[in-house]
Amino acid sequence: MIVPAGPGWAEEHLRRLTANGIQSHFQLAHIAQLDTLERMIRRGKYYGPLNITWVAIGGGFDAPNPYTLTNFMRAVPDGATLTLESSMRNVLPLNTMAVAMGLHVRCGNEDNLWTQDRSAKMTSVQQVEQLVRISRELGRKVATADEARRIYRIGEFYQSTEETLARAGYAPNRERGRKGFLHHA
């Protein structure tokens, strides 16, 4: 099976979304897709904030474990906003690790129907309440709707490839003849 969402498909949809004032949020299945996204930004296919959800569900996506989580985190540039998504019994442990490490998380019935011990079903509200409690116990404040819009920079678009690279935390594109470590002007 394949997901028909290669770079050409993504570029076309980025163009359509941007033309209609819709900001993109990238759901990436593994680190190779992060590399593809960086190349698309470097080629001028997207101007805007880098909001990423790492989807760790296995089966062609990254495996839901601490090793793949931290490896993906290491590769995400500092200016990006990183959210975590997993499924079934991996949701609670991975979301707890993500909250402890300062990431954003998502949960709900699409991700998991069961309590951790599978003794009962959980609603989306119960899952959110559980993560709110855990977040508070780990010293993390839960964002308000306005704070979430600010964190994700909702409605922002940038004017150039260079601005997008700089604000995401990537090094600038190389210019002809320019060598060595590059800094934004």
Provide the descriptors you would attach to this structure in a database record:
single chain; 7 helices; globular; 40% helix; TIM Barrel; 185 residues
Give a written overview of the molecule.
This protein is of the alpha/beta class and 185 residues long. The protein has one domain (7-108, 118-168): TIM Barrel, CATH 3.20.20.70. It is 40% helix and 9% strand. The protein is built from seven helices and four strands, in the order αβαβαβαβααα. It has helices at residues 7-19, 31-42, 66-75, 91-100, 124-137, 145-151, 161-168; strands at 26-28, 51-56, 81-86, 104-105. It has a four-stranded parallel sheet, covered by helices on one side. The longest helix has 14 residues, at 124-137.
Overall geometry comes to globular
The helix-and-strand class reads alpha/beta
Kindly report the spatial arrangement of strands forming the biggest sheet. 1-2-3-4
How much strand?
5-15%
